[in-house]
Amino acid sequence: xxxxxxxxxxxxxxxxxxxxxxxxxxxxxxxxxxxxxxxxxxxxxxxxxxxxxxxxxxxxxxxxxxxxxxxxxxxxxxxxxxxxxxxxxxxxxxxxxxxxxxxxxxxxxxxxxxxxxxxxxxxxxxxxxxxxxxxxxxxxxxxxxxxxxxxxxxxxx
Length: 157
Ligand code: FES
Ligand code: FES
Fold this sequence. Notes:
alpha+beta, binds FE2/S2 (inorganic) cluster, Ubiquitin-like (UB roll)
């Protein structure tokens, strides 16, 4: 039987009927059609599905949809400014070749965003720890770490 939940999605209040067995990832992609959040492994190991819930980066493929009730959920679609200006993290990933195939990128940016919201001046270790749950098969991670470092620098100004 479906249940109604209410939560904030990318700064807008939403009310939606969900099947209690769904994951947050399913709701985001299949109901809201926010397909920037990717499904990789589906079992909490790759980080492609990372979104921010109440300030923390979470694997939406493991997040029971009913748990979203009353929460503040941000996906990659909610990261740029309302006029379309890219978030400094998005711009830095472009500028530093932090993106190759792009499959991991949404999750990487969400993990890094959660970090920068808590720690504006992160160490390299902080950055590496924040994306430890995000697997990238393409970049070797160096450009990704550099992207986050540059975004942090730009956001300080
Ligand atoms: S799809 Fe969620 S961690 Fe891999
Ligand atoms: S850019 Fe391809 S998986 Fe990271």
